[in-house]
């Protein structure tokens, strides 16, 4: 698997990403993750819908918590044609418990813990930690990646306004 070093950091320390970089205009790579009921979910499950794929290291960290809550809030303003998926390496049971405690009910949380296929397919699997980098991918209903954002410092939030602008372009 391809290794890419020095692209992201955690508290200033460089980390290595595994997998190929996904770029705007690419077909969205397929993957298998588990939902909170342990059912297998793939990106093709959302064909026909625009999707925000929000990749986070762990819902049990402050920035991931903020990011997922913010997208849950934004989801209340979006129509049914947009699905927001938060993908982490957390176990599905932990994700379900977190969503219940946080009141998150619009974002779909998915676990890549089993085989890390999402992280590898999207080039966001952190070699040193076996966690996912903080990244956003906007995929249109035809399965084309329309926007990408890889957050350079793992402890920082993404640029939400840029993500929402990309989604609004799809809806125009």
Polypeptide structure, described:
25% of the residues lie in helices and 29% in strands. With 172 residues, the protein is an alpha+beta fold. The chain has a single domain, classed as Glutaredoxin (3-Layer(aba) Sandwich). The strands form 3 sheets. A 5-stranded mixed beta sheet has the order 7-6-5-10-11. The chain has a 4-stranded antiparallel beta sheet with strand order 1-2-8-9. Strands 3-4 form a two-stranded antiparallel ribbon. The longest helix has 14 residues, at 62-75.
Summarize the structure.
This protein has helices spanning 62-75, 92-102, 117-122, 160-171, and strands spanning 3-10, 13-18, 33-34, 40-41, 50-55, 82-88, 108-111, 125-126, 131-132, 135-139, 145-150.
List low-confidence stretches: none
Tally of alpha and pi helices: 4
Count of the domains? 1
Radius of gyration: 15 Å
CATH architecture, by name, is 3-Layer(aba) Sandwich
Global mean pLDDT: 96
Question: Which CATH class is shown?
Answer: Alpha Beta
Distance, first to last CA: 38 Å
Structural class: alpha+beta
Which fold name is given in CATH as the topology?
Glutaredoxin
Relative helix content = 25-40%
The name of the CATH superfamily reads Glutaredoxin
Overall outline: globular
Approximate strand percentage? 25-35%
The biggest beta sheet reads:
5 strands, mixed
Which strand order do you get reading across the main beta sheet?
7-6-5-10-11
Order of helices and strands: EEEEEHEHEHEEEEH
């Amino acid at each position: 698997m391809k290794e890419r070093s020095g692209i992201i950091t955690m508290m200033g320390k460089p980390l290595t990403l595994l997998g190929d970089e996904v770029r705007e205009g690419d077909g969205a790579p397929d993957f298998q993750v588990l939902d909170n009921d342990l059912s297998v979910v793939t990106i093709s499950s959302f064909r026909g819908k625009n999707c925000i794929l929000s990749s986070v290291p762990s819902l049990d960290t402050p920035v991931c918590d903020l990011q997922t809550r913010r997208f849950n809030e934004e989801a209340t303003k979006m129509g049914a044609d947009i699905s927001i998926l938060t993908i982490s390496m957390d176990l599905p049971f932990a994700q379900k418990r977190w969503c219940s405690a946080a009141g998150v009910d619009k974002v779909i949380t998915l676990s890549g813990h089993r085989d890390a296929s999402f992280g590898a397919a999207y080039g966001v699997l952190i070699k040193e930690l076996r966690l996912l980098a903080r990244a956003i991918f906007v995929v249109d209903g035809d399965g084309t990646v329309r926007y990408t954002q890889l957050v350079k410092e793992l402890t920082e939030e993404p640029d939400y306004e840029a993500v929402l602008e990309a989604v609004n372009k799809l809806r125009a």
